[in-house]
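pinned: reference chain
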Amino acid sequence: MHVILVHGAGGSSATWSSVAALLDARGIPHTVADNPSQSLTEDTGRVTGLVQAAGEDVVLVGHSYGGAVITNAGRSPGVRGLVYVAAWVPDEGESVQSIVRRYPPAEVSAHFTRGPAGEWIPVIDEASRLALAWDVPEDIWAAAPERVSGDRVFSEVIGTPAWSALPSWYVLATSDKHIRVEAQRDMAMRAGASVVEVDTSHAVPHAAPDRLVEVIEAAVASLAAGDAVPPAIQHEPSDNPALAVVQDGAHYS
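pinned: its structure tokens
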């Protein structure tokens, strides 16, 4: 079973450095995506290519916006399961924006600016670190590349969600300042995911890498043994009233 790690908007392959080291130590084959984060369509295509190149069954692991990417790319043949890490889990016809609009603004909204084409530009300073990622080691925070994300990563909508046909796991960050905890719970429940809670910031891959790798290992083992099954729910797009489809000019906050 091959694990593919997918970072969020503004992230990079460095998002997974703490996790990748532990997977190496355990002998778990893995690939780390490094997406440009300019559109959901492009990022989905890149991860689909990694799935095809793996040459074996795959578990997709997505952090933050990476959850939207694996929800699309998980429809690729060979994907056996999905692990969401403090991630967005859209349904058919939804975008990240349309989900965000249904909840009060998260604290992260105060730490972004917008570019002339709607780009999302993170404010990288000590105040942001203390507010959003206080539990990430300072050297890791300092080494992370600064990336600007295109507006289409949040505005493009999902097709048929892979979670409607695949087993999924959700690592829920109970002190997350990027995705509201109640939104995480709603999305995980709707997807029929097995939920594991960690008391961390949004930066779970660096704040709790050991716990996250335990979840990945459990998912791999369950899938390999044939114990994991798709969600025991009848999928209907946006059947949760709290997550009804909104197709308007919603903006990320």
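why pinned: Confidence is low (pLDDT under 50) at residues 238-253. The radius of gyration is 17 Å.
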